[in-house]
């Protein structure tokens, strides 16, 4: 099969039924993903009124068969609109959450290093966050170490994380 067989008389590329079906399913899947986004973030997405009303209706539906039909309707609506800006907004939201999760994991690792007594980690925190109250930080580290040794609830352990998190937010 040559490349010329996939091009019609107007010079446009022909799509197979399978390819069209995949694109429709991808749009339906994007619609399902939009339903999982928190309302505060959802409102910032560039969603047309017709699609917005279809998504709001989907949130009220409980029946599985009705949901299936509604998802198909969402796919139909999304075929008529340009879904690229919506997809881009969703991708930006998802990537932002992944970045935030990575930052939290890094802060947790630093906290764990501080509690185990790693002096290099303490020096790194002091260098990275010059506004840190060193005395308070050391008190929290000692209290967290004491809690760990006595098998007490990790109150200061959590507080240490909150201090690191607030320092990170202040620095950005």
TrEMBL record:
GO terms for cellular component: cytosol. Keywords: Cytoplasm, Ribosome biogenesis, RNA-binding, rRNA-binding. GO terms for molecular function: ribosome binding; rRNA binding. It comes from the Bacteria. GO terms for biological process: assembly of large subunit precursor of preribosome. It is found in: Cytoplasm. It holds the Pfam family DarP. Gene3D superfamilies: PSPTO4464-like domains. Its main location: cytoplasm. Member of a network of 50S ribosomal subunit biogenesis factors which assembles along the 30S-50S interface, preventing incorrect 23S rRNA structures from forming. Promotes peptidyl transferase center (PTC) maturation. Belongs to the DarP family. HAMAP family: DarP. This is Dual-action ribosomal maturation protein DarP. It comes from BD1-7 clade bacterium. The lineage of its organism: Bacteria, Pseudomonadati, Pseudomonadota, Gammaproteobacteria, Cellvibrionales. The gene is darP.
